[in-house]
């Protein structure tokens, strides 16, 4: 009897668990075909609501947002069964589960050649080229001087944005510079629960600092005497200091939810933003399931350029985010500015690192130095994780900690809490020689992998090792620069290998820009310091550089499409230093490749007059999706309409997408290169003249074994602005072992303009 009752109880519990699992709700994005709305509904909102109620018993499902610009549809909390039922309804294009995205967390104008007289290349505000940069991020600190509107004309009459009031944020916070501020939290609170308003502001106010940093980088006003504790002192200005800024807070402590991101993009495009900047990502996904890609497609149709960060998961290959060809994907490089700190060892050797420490210096006399792994109670003690260091073995000493797992600055907190006097933060092989400066709370220096290895070797071999750390301030004119940041995510493109990504790199290491008044420069709760400007690194920082530069180009050429703007930035980028040697990779110290930097490092002074551009429009991108064998439903999910279809009689090719770069993929039959048959891959491109009359001749240079290139025709002559000329490139190669790569460059030149395209060869 007892066993029967026990079995019955177990069965009942299983049933309850199964029912709970079925009833568990999650957020889904429902894509609707706008033209399919039945005549009985007065508007699309009414139709969306009725559709939701039809699949939800007792109307339990809750609608979060209705979208009308970057997609047609809505987001709602559904059970798995309701989502499945919804996907089968008439007029529904797709039902995608919500995704979680993460943030890709003064000297720059001089480095890019657009400070001072360089700004004269571009129109000022108040002209027909007035541009608003929409930044989707963590919000804004409106009191920052970077949003001073002195000298700006009245806000354009076509602007539809608003300044939303909320916690510690008044609608009067906006002005002629900061023309809009909205926040979107319905998806976040639906997924994470009601936010803790002691930690987060239910308003556009930036509690984190990331959004203030990115928006001021893109279009902040010029602020003199800006610095972080005296580091990087000078005038801080955004890339487009006369452009307007509108912020859309879509990221919170728990991340950035796709339902909120889409709502932000929907509002930004409707408000009238000309450029959208998103320093966030969630890995690479199929375009029909990637909310940012879908929103960006609609923005492109509305003539809005979308710039996104490539990601911070380098230097590994195929680590990119935001790879859709209608998105401008931005990697990170270094500036010619550094913040050196010197580690002087007791054996007389000195090693150079970096630091933004600004407190009391270490004593002149050397201190004992220890390796964290030897003074820890943990098997991972080398990483200086919280609670792992033994104070009795650390007190009064400099501790060598290995980089990784926990935040760099947090390791310093751990050393300080264990009564350590200072820290040497040593890169491992994963970070190589890349040095990222941090505003440590104790004397500390970050050093490269080679230096860290040498310091740890000294500590292990000397019976009484000693050291001291000297902070040396700010140095400029550092060479070589730029180098590709080790953290910057790399190609090849895992979604579509035939599209070379990233598109370009821009400054993203040790960038000074405005900061929130709510958090310290390290972003850690224990950091009680407050600063007006902060120095941080990431493709989050490089992305708004390109967003601001795109705004400058748009002000100079308001008639250009988003694709033309991107083409101008890409084809004028440089992949070699002034002496002719190729750009380097911080991760290895070796030559970087187009998988690391795309077309190269942005050069805005040249981009304003590119000569020729590779243009693209909606139909071109739909043909690209047809070449990928997308079904009509998948295309409709991306393009928001069933009006676009593939012609069964037409042959589509990814190689015919009019992209400013070439990714040539050879699919080897045997994988080992044993098949000796030659394979030809053909790409067709069309150039549009945006300059004066000219005769352009082609040249190619490549380092790819066994490849032959043929460009036809080899000369293109243009007589008028807007004239288009096409050419074909045939890449012929014998089979190579799978995994082999090669690189090159194709350049059209009229003697004044060099219209350059990178080439990547892959055998797979």
UniProtKB/TrEMBL annotation:
Q: Main localisation, per the record? A: secreted
Output a single Gene Ontology CC term carried by this record. Answer: extracellular region
Q: Where in the cell is it found?
A: Secreted
Keywords from UniProt, A to Z, are: Glycoprotein, Hydrolase, Protease, Secreted, Serine protease, Signal
The segments labelled Disordered in the record are 194-218
- Biased composition (Basic and acidic residues) is annotated at 195-211
Signal sequence segment: 1-21
Q: Does the keyword Cytoplasm apply?
A: no
Q: Which GO terms describe its molecular function?
A: serine-type endopeptidase activity
Q: Where is each Inhibitor I9 domain found?
A: 27-104
Q: Which PROSITE patterns match?
A: SUBTILASE, SUBTILASE_SER
What sequence ranges are listed for the domain Subtilisin-like protease fibronectin type-III?
656-760
* Record InterPro entries: PA_domain, Peptidase_S8/S53_dom, Peptidase_S8/S53_dom_sf, Peptidase_S8_Ser-AS, Peptidase_S8_subtilisin-rel, Peptidases_S8_3, S8pro/Inhibitor_I9, S8pro/Inhibitor_I9_sf
Please give one Pfam family short name. Answer: PA
Q: Which residues form the active site?
A: 137, 210, 540
Gene Ontology biological-process entries: proteolysis; system development
PA domain: residues covered: 368-455
The UniProt record lists the Peptidase S8/S53 domain at 130-600
Q: Which family does it belong to?
A: Belongs to the peptidase S8 family.
Q: Tell me the protein's name.
A: Subtilisin-like protease
Q: Which organism is it from?
A: Arundo donax (Giant reed)
């Amino acid at each position: 009897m007892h066993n029967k009752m026990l079995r019955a109880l177990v069965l009942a519990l299983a049933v309850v668990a199964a029912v709970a699992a079925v009833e568990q709700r999650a957020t889904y994005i429902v894509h609707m075909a706008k033209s399919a709305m039945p005549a009985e509904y007065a508007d699309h909102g009414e139709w969306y609501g009725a559709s939701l109620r039809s699949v939800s018993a007792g109307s339990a499902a809750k609608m979060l947002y209705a979208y009308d610009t970057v997609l047609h549809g809505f987001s709602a909390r559904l059970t798995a069964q309701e989502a499945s039922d919804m996907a089968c309804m008439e007029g529904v294009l797709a039902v995608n589960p919500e995704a979680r995205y993460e943030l890709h967390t003064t000297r720059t104008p001089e480095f890019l050649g657009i400070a001072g007289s360089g700004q004269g290349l571009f129109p000022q505000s108040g002209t027909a080229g007035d541009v608003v940069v929409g930044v989707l991020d963590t919000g804004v600190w409106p009191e920052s001087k970077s949003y001073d509107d002195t000298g700006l004309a009245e806000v354009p009459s076509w602007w539809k944005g608003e300044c939303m009031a909320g916690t510690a944020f008044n609608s009067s916070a906006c002005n002629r510079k900061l023309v809009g501020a909205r926040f979107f939290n319905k998806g976040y609170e639906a997924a994470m629960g009601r936010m803790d308003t002691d930690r987060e502001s239910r308003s556009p106010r930036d509690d984190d600092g990331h959004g203030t940093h990115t928006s001021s980088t893109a279009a902040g006003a010029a602020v003199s005497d800006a610095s972080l504790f005296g580091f990087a002192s000078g005038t801080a200005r955004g890339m487009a200091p006369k452009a307007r800024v509108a912020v859309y807070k879509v990221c919170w402590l728990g991340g950035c939810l796709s339902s909120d991101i889409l709502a932000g993009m929907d509002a930004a495009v409707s408000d009238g933003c000309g450029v959208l900047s998103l320093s966030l990502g969630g890995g690479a996904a199929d375009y029909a399931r990637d909310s940012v890609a879908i929103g960006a497609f609609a923005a492109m149709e509305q003539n809005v350029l979308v710039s996104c960060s490539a990601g911070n998961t380098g230097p590994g290959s195929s680590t990119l985010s935001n790879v859709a060809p209608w998105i401008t994907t931005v990697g990170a490089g270094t500036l010619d500015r550094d913040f050196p700190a010197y580690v002087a060892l007791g054996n007389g050797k000195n090693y150079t690192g970096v630091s933004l420490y600004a407190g009391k210096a270490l004593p002149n006399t050397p201190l004992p130095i220890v390796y964290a792994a030897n003074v820890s109670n943990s098997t991972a003690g080398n990483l200086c994780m919280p609670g792992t260091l033994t104070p009795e073995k650390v007190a009064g000493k400099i501790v060598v900690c290995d980089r990784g797992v926990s935040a760099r600055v947090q390791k310093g907190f751990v050393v300080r809490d264990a009564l350590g006097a200072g820290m040497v933060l040593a890169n491992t092989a994963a970070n190589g020689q890349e040095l990222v400066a941090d505003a440590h709370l104790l004397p500390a220096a970050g050093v490269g992998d080679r230096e860290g290895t040498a310091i740890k070797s000294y500590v292990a071999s000397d019976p009484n090792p000693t050291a001291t750390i000297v902070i040396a301030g700010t140095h400029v004119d550092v060479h070589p620069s730029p180098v590709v940041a080790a953290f910057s995510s790399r190609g090849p493109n895992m979604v579509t290998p035939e599209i070379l990504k990233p598109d370009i790199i821009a400054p993203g290491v040790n960038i000074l820009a405005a900061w929130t008044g709510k958090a310290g420069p390290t972003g850690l709760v224990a950091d009680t310091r407050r600063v007006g400007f902060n120095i941080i690194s990431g493709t989050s920082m490089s992305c708004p550089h390109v967003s601001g530069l795109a705004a400058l180009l748009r002000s100079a050429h308001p008639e250009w499409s988003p694709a033309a703007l991107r083409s101008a930035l890409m084809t004028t980028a440089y992949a070699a230093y002034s002496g002719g040697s190729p750009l380097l990779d911080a991760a290895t110290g070796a030559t970087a490749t187009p998988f690391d930097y795309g077309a190269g490092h942005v050069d805005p002074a040249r981009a304003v007059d590119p000569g020729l551009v590779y243009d693209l429009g909606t139909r071109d991108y739909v043909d690209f999706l047809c070449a990928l064998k997308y079904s009509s439903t998948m295309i409709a999910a991306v393009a928001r309409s069933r009006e676009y279809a593939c012609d069964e009689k037409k042959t589509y090719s990814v190689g015919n997408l009019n992209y400013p770069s070439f990714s040539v993929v050879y699919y080897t039959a045997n994988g080992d290169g044993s098949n000796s048959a030659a394979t030809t891959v053909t790409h067709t491109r069309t150039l549009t003249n945006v300059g004066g009359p000219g005769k352009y001749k082609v040249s190619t240079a490549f380092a790819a074994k066994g490849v032959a290139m043929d460009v036809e025709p080899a000369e293109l002559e243009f007589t008028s602005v807007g004239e288009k000329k096409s050419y074909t490139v045939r890449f012929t190669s014998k089979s190579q072992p799978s995994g082999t790569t090669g690189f090159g460059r194709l350049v059209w030149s009229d003697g004044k303009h060099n219209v350059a395209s990178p080439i990547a060869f892959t055998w797979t």
